[in-house]
Write a structure and sequence with these properties.
Layout: H1 7-18, H2 22-29, H3 33-40, H4 48-59, H5 74-81, E1 83-85, E2 93-95, H6 100-119, E3 121-128, E4 136-145, E5 151-157, E6 160-169, E7 172-179, E8 184-191, E9 197-208, E10 216-227, H7 233-246, H8 256-263, H9 269-273, E11 288-290
Antiparallel strand pairs: 1-2, 3-4, 3-10, 4-5, 5-6, 6-7, 7-8, 8-9, 9-10, 9-11
Protein name: XRE family transcriptional regulator
GO molecular function: DNA binding
Length: about 300
């Protein structure tokens, strides 16, 4: 196999642009994290089989990527898959750096700096199934700041892993995720928490259901805190795997009845006439937090 010129720099660029850690990449490739580190620092070149695996993994984030693209010049590769470099304090590599996404990153930067610790931690989601009426689904995941000044999000449920970013803006939280099976984005809009440490967050999830019609749907979603990060990234990655495997209860459980009431509430003209909501909206009541001295609300 012909060696890829400047592979280490290209690999580092793709890792940054996808917000994928070396540990996460190693897990997906099925190799030790030290091997990914040696690829990234240029000490060793991946074999043909692993280069093909890398292409498949990064194609989840950059659908246009092909095996042949590794042999392009670094700048041509970046242009080919739609990323551009920026040298500012927010992020050095982002998608469409001069487009709408860059404006979202820039607008949210002050609140990310101020509110990251409010939301960092391990979380469980509760959401209704679109294709199985009456069933509640749980995802388990983590919010964590990365070294580019953004908040990474990873959620896993029913064998699917969703990755993306969270942006706090104007008192709300905007989460953009990618569904690797359905090959579509998921968007979550949640009401933020004013207290220093969020314990639960309520929002709305917009998705394409995994039915035969890929039906567009909007459903309520509630997140409950499962724990806090340790500050050791490797330890936190291991803890996340434990949480996904063991599915623990939240630190401040809202209870099954409260979750079902939120997820299956009526909306529309009839509900509005009876004091409910005309449209599906976030009630704010379930976006709660605590202070350092234990005040909860």
């Amino acid at each position: 196999m012909e060696r890829v010129p400047d592979l280490a720099a290209k690999l580092v660029m793709l890792l940054k642009a996808s917000s994928l850690s070396r540990v996460g990449l190693a897990q997906e490739v099925g190799v030790d994290k030290s091997l990914v580190g040696r690829w990234a620092n240029g000490a060793i070149h991946p074999g043909e089989h692993n280069l093909a695996k890398l292409t498949t993994i990064f194609r989840k984030h950059f659908p246009a990527l092909t095996l042949a693209d590794w042999y392009r010049e670094r700048e041509a590769l970046a242009h080919r898959i739609g990323i551009a470099e920026r040298n500012d304090q927010i992020t050095d590599v982002v998608m469409s750096a001069d487009g709408p996404f860059a404006k979202i990153v820039a607008t949210s930067a002050p609140e990310i700096a101020y509110k990251t610790q409010t939301y960092e931690g391990f979380w469980r989601t509760t959401r209704p199934s679109v294709v199985m009426p009456g069933e509640l689904f749980h995802d388990y995941g983590m919010f964590r700041a990365n070294d580019k000044g953004m908040i990474d999000v990873v959620m896993e449920g029913a064998g699917l892993t969703f990755t993306g970013w969270m942006f706090p803006m104007a008192g709300n939280l905007y989460v953009f995720l990618f569904d690797p099976v359905g090959r579509t984005p998921l968007i979550v809009l949640m009401k933020g928490v004013t207290l220093p440490r969020a314990t639960s967050i309520e929002g709305l999830l917009l998705l394409s259901a995994l039915d035969t019609q890929r039906t567009p749907a909007a459903v309520p979603v509630v997140l409950e805190r499962l724990g806090d990060l340790s500050g050791d990234r490797d330890a936190d990655d291991r803890r996340l795997r434990e949480i996904i495997d063991t599915q623990p209860e939240p630190l401040f459980p809202l209870g099954e009845a409260t979750l079902r009431k939120c997820c299956y509430r009526d909306v529309g003209p009839i509900a509005a006439n009876e004091g409910g909501d005309l449209y599906m909206m976030v009630s704010r009541a379930l976006s709660q937090g605590t202070t350092s001295n234990g005040l909860h609300g």
